[in-house]
Amino acid sequence: MADLQAIVDSVYYDLSDRIGEGKLADYIPELATVDPKQFGIALVTVDGQTHAAGDTETAFSIQSISKVFTLTLALGKIGDGLWKRVGREPSGNAFNSIVQLEQEKGKPRNPFINAGAIAVADVVLAGHLPKEAIGEIVQFIRHLADDESIAIDQNVARSETQTGYRNVALANFMKAFRNLDHPVEHVLGVYFHHCAIAMSCRQLAHAGLYLASAGRNPLNGGSVVSASRARRINALMLMCGHYDGSGDFAYRVGLPGKSGVGGGILATAPGKASIAVWSPGLNEVGNSQLGSAALELLAQRTGWSVFGQ
Ligand code: DON
Q1: What's the rounded mean pLDDT across residues 62-85?
Q2: Helix or strand or coil: residue 251?
Q3: What domain of life does the native source organism fall in (predicted)?
Q4: The pTM is what?
Q5: pLDDT tens digit string along 261-286?
């Protein structure tokens, strides 16, 4: 058995002179105020061991990583009915692109591009007021991470509410195609707030453990989803989790992963571990530059890959 702590330490050490690389997401003004010189790696194995290096206790804006959790909730509510509303194909486009949405009559390509996640938020909202739906999402993530301290960063939520013009456009477009049941402002309220949830690498790796462990949380034995659903969520992460960078991420890392513009990435090594990395600087397609590099090195050094050794 490889010494995982030594591998995590070596990945951190080998990349430490690159801390600060990449560009902050400044289209959400609050995210541009984050110190770019931060970098953390946390890994939780399916038997409950945590290995960490760097800034793994600092909470950051999980942004699009939250879409994995809202997808899990929406599938729990309406199961395969979700696929009438959202597709399961990689988009090959930017996360906030509107182009395909017109061609494909308001049905987003997948649940991880912004339009798809907005449709998922509409599903989670059914039967609730927006603040109840937001509460349900936060509560679900606290349960997964076994940590009641996880909360929304209200400054980030406000900042995105004030400047999220593209998301307003995407939501209105889907509403025009009758792919949103609720008022646009309510759906976006849910979406902006779940994107603004703040978590540390350690909390995030812990929350993602069900994806590495056949749908169960091995730390408390509880079942989160069925094994087949966990497998399918991982498939979507692999194909769509990095937007138009998904092919490159699969090629370099070979693990399902979901990125966020806060600079975090949650990755799954099925049967082995859940891994969260964070460094705020992004590459040209909006994924953490150092985080991607860290996962590439980690996958090489552990031999973990969904494609074999
Ligand atoms: O809607 C947005 O633009 C952000 N709340 C989330 C985008 C995001 O994290 C894309 N990921 N790399």
Answers
A1: 98
A2: helix
A3: Bacteria
A4: 0.98
A5: 999 999 999 999 999 999 999 999 99
Q: In whole angstroms, what is the distance from residue 15 CA to residue 290 CA?
A: 8
Ligand 1: which residue has its CA nearest to atom 1? 114
In this structure, the number of other CB atoms found within 10 A of the CB of residue 147 comes to 15
Residues in the chain: 309
208-239 per-position pLDDT tens digit? 999 999 999 988 878 999 999 999 999 999 99
Structural domains in the chain, CATH included, are 4-63+197-302 (3.40.710.10), 86-194 (1.10.1500.10)
pLDDT tens figures, 51-60: 999 999 999 9
Asked about 175 being catalytic, the answer comes back as: no
Which residues make beta-bridge pairs with 52?
42
Residues lining ligand 1, Cβ inside 6 A? 63-64, 95-96, 114, 160, 167, 195, 259-261, 286-287
Give the distance, in angstroms, between the CA of residue 286 and the centroid of all CA atoms in the same chain. 13
Q: Which of 103, 132, 107 is closest to 119 using CA atoms?
A: 107
Cβ atoms 50, 43 nearer than 8 A: yes
Distance CA 35, CA 289 (A): 15
Q: Is 165 a catalytic residue?
A: no
- The rounded mean pLDDT for the chain is 96
Whole-number Å distance between alpha carbons of 258 and 246: 9
